[in-house]
Amino acid sequence: MQGVLALTKICYVSGASEILVTAQGMDPFIRSPSSMSSNSNDFSSDPEFQSWLEKLSTTSTKPPASQFASAHQMGTSKMSTRPEDGVVDPKGKVWGTEDLYVSDASVFPSASGVNPMVTNMAISDWISRGIGKELKGEVSDEGLEERARL
C-alpha cells in the first residue's frame, strides 16, 4: 500500500488533474480547479487530497484486482526559444550543452490530451534529420528557419 500511496503523491506533485487507482470502492481523485490554479503542488495543504489518501490507505489493493499505470508522459523537457522557458532549443538541443539532444514526447510544450505517437514520430524525425545535417556541416546554430511554433 505504501507504494500506491507514494505513486499517487507523485502524480499530484507532477500536476495530475485526476488520479485513478484500481482499488475496489475507490473513486478517482479529481483535483479542484482552485488547487490547480494556485500552482501549489504541496499535497499536504490540500484537505480533499488528504481525505482521499486516508480512504485509500484503508482500502484493499490486493492483486490481481489492483494496478497502477501511467502513459504518454509529455512536456518534461519542453522545447523553447529561450533557455529560461524550456529544456531544449527548437532543434532539440539541450540548452547550455554540446551534443546532447532530446527527440521524444518530452519536448512537447505540454500534454496533448491525445495519443502522441504520430506527433512524437514527426518531431523525432525532424530533430534527427537536423542532427544529421549538423554532423555534415550543412547547418549552423545561427539563423534557425522558423517552420512552426510550439
UniProtKB/TrEMBL annotation:
Outline the segment boundaries, as ranges, of region: Disordered.
60-90
Q: Which GO terms describe its molecular function?
A: oxidoreductase activity, acting on CH-OH group of donors
Organism in which the protein naturally occurs: Monilinia fructicola
Q: What is the name attached to this protein's record?
A: Glucose-methanol-choline oxidoreductase C-terminal domain-containing protein
- Similarity section: Belongs to the GMC oxidoreductase family.
Q: Domain of life, per the record? A: Eukaryota
Name all Glucose-methanol-choline oxidoreductase C-terminal domain ranges: 66-123
Q: Which SUPFAM superfamilies match?
A: FAD/NAD(P)-binding domain (SSF51905)
Q: Where is the composition biased (Polar residues)?
A: 60-80
Compositionally biased residues, Basic and acidic residues: 81-90
The record's annotation in InterPro entries points to: FAD/NAD-bd_sf, GMC_OxRtase_C
Q: What are the protein's UniProt keywords?
A: FAD, Flavoprotein, Oxidoreductase
Statement: the UniProt record of this protein carries the keyword Flavoprotein: yes
For this protein, the record's Gene3D superfamilies field holds: FAD/NAD(P)-binding domain
